[in-house]
Amino acid sequence: MPAVRAILHELQHLEPEVASGIEADLTKAGAHRLGADAAHARALTLLHRQGLAKPRDPDETAREHAVWFTPHLDFDALTQLHVTLDTGDAVALDAVIEERARSLRENSPPGAAPPAGSLRVKALLDLALENSRVSTTLHLWLTYPGCHIEKAAPRFHAA
User: Fold this and answer.
1) Beta strands 147-152 and 139-144, pairing class
2) Domain total of the chain
3) How confident is the model at residue 73 (pLDDT cuts 50, 70, 90)?
């Protein structure tokens, strides 16, 4: 039932006859047997393809912007970066990353260029860290019987 509710939620803004046609298409494709998130995604995809997607409130869109990290499920040494941003910004970012990766590939020794995905990650890191500063403050707490001393070490700035 969660899948059906997710689908119906996306069809609310449509005229009943249009909604029933979309619902029939989704049912025929088996969307009602999927999980709620997959059914929701399937409904949105179909609505977008047919130009029937519900216009989104700009404030609602802005609330969806996010950056978060999750551990990679197969490799402990890797972490996945997820970003939700405006499509125009995503296209521009992709173009800049691709251009930077191409430059890195061209400047690699012959036959030693890393895989394309690694170059794109390196390009993204270069762009993100190029004008960044990292500030670190070390707080040291020493506890002795009968007293508590707090001493803050000087700030270190890494460029």
Assistant:
1) antiparallel
2) 2
3) very high
